[in-house]
Structure formats: C-alpha cells, structure tokens
Amino acid sequence: MDPNEYQDFCQAVEAGETKYVENTGSHDQGRVLFCSGNRLEVEIGDRRETWGVEYCKEVKTA
Fold this sequence. Notes:
Distance between the termini: 17 Å
Order of helices and strands: HEEEEE
Number of helices: 1
Helix content: 10-25%
CATH topology: SH3 type barrels
Largest sheet: 5 strands, antiparallel
CATH architecture: Roll
Radius of gyration: 10 Å
Shape: globular
C-alpha cells in the first residue's frame, strides 16, 4: 500500500468503516482494527497481528 493510499485507508478506518487487508507475504486476510504509524492491527479469526503497511493490500472481504 502506498503512503497516499494508506492515509486515506486509515482515515476511513478511524471514521468507522470496516476494511480488510491481505498480508502479501503470508496471504492471511483480516479486518483492520486500527492504524498506528506505518502498521496495521489486524484481526484474523480469533487472533490479532500487527502488520507493516508495506506488506498489506486492501481486499473487499476476508
């Protein structure tokens, strides 16, 4: 995800929109809980992980 896309994406998450991402390394997908710096806190099923934005791409659903 590029910096401009990340900024718009995080603004949408902070506004309450439900957003999903895929980790381009592991191919796991999850719902974004919040953004922090250049990282995303992602819920994957019953666990949470923190992913670097450089490894994320937006997907429509998990």
